[in-house]
Structure prediction request, 441 residues.
Amino acid sequence: MNTIPRRKFLRDLGISAATLPFIGGLSSLSANQAAPLRKKRLVIMFSPNGTVQEKFWPDAVSKDFQFKSILEPLAPFRDKTLLLKGVYNKIQGDGDRHMRGMSCLLTATELAPGNIQGGSDSPAGWASGISIDQEIKNYLQGRAETQTRFGSLEFGVAVPKRADPWTRMSYAGANKPVAPIDDPSQMLGKLYGQMRDKEGLVSVLDTVQQDLKRISTKLSSEDRALLDEHMNLVREMESEIARQGQQKDMGHPMPEIDPTIELVNDNTPQISRMQIDLLVNSFANDMARVATLQYMRSVGEARMNWLGVQEGHHTLSHEPDNNADAQAKLEKINTWFAGEFAYLAKRLADTPEPGGAGGSMLDNTLLVWTNELGKGNSHTLDDIPMVMIGGGGDFTMGRAIQFDKVPHNRLWMTIARSMGHDLKSFGNVALSDGGALDLVG
Prediction:
């Protein structure tokens, strides 16, 4: 078997380092011509402040379930959807429920002692363990056949420029939060590089055109189409970022006078789609097989003007159930998040699996959409929203399941095992009792 390292093989073709991000995932240029292993991928998407449960959970928890209004955007993927009700975050200890809901969401372990005061509960610090996305990333990066350039990518949309347990869900280890990148231009630079001259940004494509032209004859028709898609996306992203830069800041400023008010730019929907496009493109080019997509933050006061909602999200989530206007606005907000989740699923479904394996990328990707709370006004960590789409977990999809208050530790163990990582426990060991969940039966 040919065991030439992939990057050395590509460099031996006489191409520059700047070209590698465009062709690293093309099977035509593989140094090893053996049948490729299946590429299984995971994306965990987060949205904050709980949901409107009556508009979220189906009435019938079975194979015959019907989507309620919030999840209606997922209708095209009903047969590929799995709803899990009865998943609880049972982590106790220091920190308020928003803090534990956010920083214990993917770590499934307690917050370390600290001096960050939240709500009326005891102060706390960062999470005291690794998050499941980073755990799975480390496992995949530790095996030669599943190594990728980045291992994992952390995308953000409207995440404030601050660092505390309310803004971080990914952890490389105890007291090691991983910050998401919420600027598409920064993410584009990370993935493909950015060149500058005295005039400003220069398209990275201009520096690699000759290399790509020279190797195009070595590509299969499928790989040529995939390469064209990569190049078109990068060109479009560069143009859009340049246009936005001339009009307004693509960041999400937070006023210093009143840090409880977060202004989310009206171009947030556009930034969301750009981030999702970059995420799918990075997967198609096999730059990573694990990603997180974080919208805003726990306790976030995003003001979603594009939905006709001027009130802060967190404030609305605290309104009582009998406030019909607030509930309608929360329903609208959460339906928008569902629409972004559906767009991610569609982009993957519309992208053929690279390498000639057949099917779409969604067939080999597991998408998980979750939240730090079950319900905002009660701060409950019960019935955390858990929605899955795709075939990457090899679970039996097209149904809704009711569990009896299972700790979310066991769900993360189940997902890790579906990725080949045979975890015996995760996070709080005591809450891992019972092992992985049966999502195949």
Q: What stands out?
A: The mean pLDDT is 88. The radius of gyration is 22 Å. Residues 42-182+251-432 form a domain with the Alkaline Phosphatase, subunit A fold (CATH 3.40.720). The chain has eleven helices and eleven strands.
